[in-house]
Amino acid sequence: MAHTGSLSGWGRTAPSTARIVTPRTAAEVAAVVTAAGPRGIIARGLGRSYGDPAQNAGGTVLDMTGLAAPPAIDADTGVAVVDGGVSLDTLMRAALPLGWWVPVLPGTRQVTVGGAFGADVHGKNHHTKGSFGNHVLAMDVVTADGSIRTLTPDGPEAELFWTTVGGMGLTGVIVRATVQLQRTESAYFVVDTDRTRDLDELLELLTDGSDDTYDYSAAWFDTTTTGAKLGRAVLTRGSLATLDQLSPTQRRDPLKFDAPQLLTFPDVFPNGLANPATLRAFSELWYHTKPRRDRGAIQNITAFYQVLDLFGDWNRVYGSRGFLQYQFLVPFGEEATLRRIAERIAASRHSSGLNVLKRFGAGNQAPLSFPQPGWTVTVDFPIASGLHRFCDELDELVLYAGGRLYLAKESRTTGANFRRGYPRFDEWRKVRDATDPEGVFVSDMARRLGLTS
């Protein structure tokens, strides 16, 4: 089934029109790939990348949500065989009753397995579990010639496997993956909370050794405050709860996945509702409603981890102009750069209410995988005059410090700036071009950044 439609990323910026095809089998994927026209083809999952990597103006887009058979999970080993169009939410709901947990979850479960692998997503536990690609044992990929190749991280085509990790769909279409799940006794977390006075106190807590005692760790921090309150934060850290840590009531159904969606936002919010005044008020309220210090709270996944999954289409709050999510990484030792960036944002007219700081552990061997040892920060800016120029200034601070930007969030930088952050780009490009010499797989992002021929 095919139709023509307009597509954009989660930030709702830069829409483009493409022919959209929804395959139901791997064979149908292969047939569409080999019939792709001169504008090429790209796969798309649930559209949760913020920019334009799952768009292809004038070409073909594969809607992979049609390739979503129920996951097959070995209850004894936790090995799951999952179609590329299956969401992490679906995988989680299938795994938990068997006592298994998805080892890496981003800030939303509403992403597909193929998308999670293609972006090599990370979560609050990168310092303990790495990124999604670390837990994939094998995958079936439809390459540009229509063949279906089974790739493993250490097999004869390991180079193509790791080029596909974080490769944003530009090496082929992931139609199936074998994922190693993680054993769990419950669907709950034991959570500790610390509210810090400023950025320095936050970084001290993250570097005093205590962070290594938690499986999950992330901080919301304030980008609207200056001076002594610069970067004040709410740090939440936790681990999956064991049975003996639960209340008697929770022990009766410890694997209950209590994650309802409370409401879906209508598309009625005016542009400008998210502005410096409202975001400053939101930040003040969020900070002061959190405890100064709390220990051992038992929380479900939405309370601790994925609050925004409570609200469908929450991106509509920013209005029709949308918003830009800016995510960067700087290495350890560049804490002064973090402070300068926080100061720049707080002093600018570009405010953000949803800001996250996390500590990354060791990266994997994928050339375009985003995580590496250091600090990663995410901020959401409403689209406004001068924003792109302001982000160009932030780019320079990040790149000068030896940092990089994240392709799953990126929507406006230049190809030259992107490559400055990824010194192994030429290595990635060589393998990609050998696999797809005619440039069949292409996206709006690939054209904008010059990632493909």
Written account of the structure:
The chain is of the alpha+beta class and 453 residues long. The protein has two domains: 66-184, Uridine Diphospho-n-acetylenolpyruvylglucosamine Reductase, domain 3, CATH 3.30.465; 189-414, Alpha-Beta Plaits (2-Layer Sandwich), CATH 3.30.70.2520. It is 25% helix and 24% strand. It has 14 helices and 21 strands. It has helices spanning 26-34, 88-95, 113-118, 126-129, 158-164, 199-207, 248-251, 276-288, 301-304, 335-347, 387-400, 415-421, 425-435, 444-449; strands spanning 2-7, 16-21, 41-44, 60-63, 72-73, 79-83, 100-101, 136-142, 148-151, 173-180, 182-183, 189-196, 216-221, 233-240, 263-264, 293-299, 311-312, 323-331, 356-360, 374-382, 404-405. It has an eight-stranded antiparallel beta sheet. The chain is globular. The two termini are 29 Å apart. The model has no long low-confidence stretch (mean pLDDT 97).
